[in-house]
Amino acid sequence: MVVKVAINGYGTIGKRVAHAVTLQDDMEVVGVTKTRPTYQAQMAIDKGFPFYAAAKEHVAGFKEAGFEVEGTLEDLLDVAEVVVDCTPGKKAINNVKMYNDHKVRIILQGGEAHETAGLSFNALANYEKCLGAESVRVVSCNTTGLCRTLYPIYNEKKEENEKKIGIKNVLATMVRRSADPGDSKKGPINAITPVLKIPSHHGPDVQTVIPDLNIQTLAVAVPTTIMHLHCVAVEMKRPVPAEDIIALWEKTPRVRFVKGSEGIKSTAEIMEYARDLNRDMSDMYEIIVWRDGVNTKENMLYYYQAVHQESDVVPENVDAIRAMFELEDDNMKSIAKTDRAMGIGK
Ligand code: NAD
């Protein structure tokens, strides 16, 4: 079976999900939408994606600029089996009725509320729960990052007579990029802005995927565009040496180690590393953990991780499609298939 995928909103996330879908053998892009005749719209056409206007009112703008459109989003929904809504945050809720009327399955992104989809998704933590689902939300870049490193500790699989690690409590501080690299409108450009609502939304968001995890989060926005950085303190259920945690993450897909001692001292060197790896769009899909920044003291684990906000959720969208259409029942097999196709982990 090859699942027919529509991408509504060919922006930062949408263009990456579209590309990732083209790399898989069990799904295909049947069309993408834009609202305006920008260079990104031209790029979508040049890449050969069937191109649609996001709504009727946008058709004239495309025609005036000489762009050919196949129709509108509603026409695209007639040929799609699932729509990945990658419109800017909090807009997708207005599209849900239309999606339901066209009987397409729905994938929303982290900018939407959990309740809009009813199910939030992370391939490592709750793939099985989303098997056959009509509608899921792929959680945000930060939430994805926290799930990837916390879930293996929370749910460490052991032989029956061995004691699991488990988590009593987490305190994580998100040092957030203030805008994506292509976005010149947002700030701050010379300030550090704390999120005064405590806990920040990230902790409750992790609980939409791992409901029993006790987690508190704080967040500050800083003047950078390239990555988020998390400072994480975990109270574990028993003392564990740092080497055991590192060994656990080494077995975890989409978690990658770097070392400060080898010259990767900041997010800047991580993005340079992604370029050196010749990744598509220089993306770093894995969550990056500084190996020499992992430490434990009795029951406490401390670590830093970096999140490439534009790309870590992209393979998750691919796995979400696979879970919803039950193309693969086992999450680790889906993750491995997606990662092989996208060159993740290499
Ligand atoms: P974006 O602004 O880069 O792209 C949005 C796209 O949607 C643009 O192509 C725009 O032309 C189009 N669009 C705007 N209004 C539309 C409408 N009414 N109908 C159809 N298309 C419309 O946004 P993004 O950063 O890709 O974010 C998309 C979603 O992904 C949001 O929910 C966001 O919270 C989430 N997300 C973003 C990031 C990130 O760092 N950029 C990371 C993870 C999740």
Describe, in plain words, how this protein is organized in 3D:
Helices cover 31% and strands 23% of the residues. The protein contains 13 helices and 15 strands. A hairpin with a 2-residue loop joins β14 and β15 (300-307). Bound molecules: nicotinamide-adenine-dinucleotide. Nicotinamide-adenine-dinucleotide (NAD) binds next to α1 and β2.
Describe, in short, the structure shown.
By secondary structure, this protein is α/β, with parallel strands linked by helices. It is built from 13 helices and 15 strands.
Please supply descriptive tags for the structure shown above.
single chain; 346 residues; alpha/beta; binds nicotinamide-adenine-dinucleotide
- Ligand species: nicotinamide-adenine-dinucleotide
Q: Could you report the average pLDDT, rounded to the nearest whole number?
A: 97
Number of helices, where a helix is a run of at least 4 consecutive DSSP H or I residues: 13
Helix share, percent: 25-40%
Distance between the first and last residues' Cα: 28 Å
The low-confidence parts are none
What kind of sheet is the major sheet?
8 strands, mixed
Quaternary state reads single chain
Q: List how many beta strands DSSP finds.
A: 15
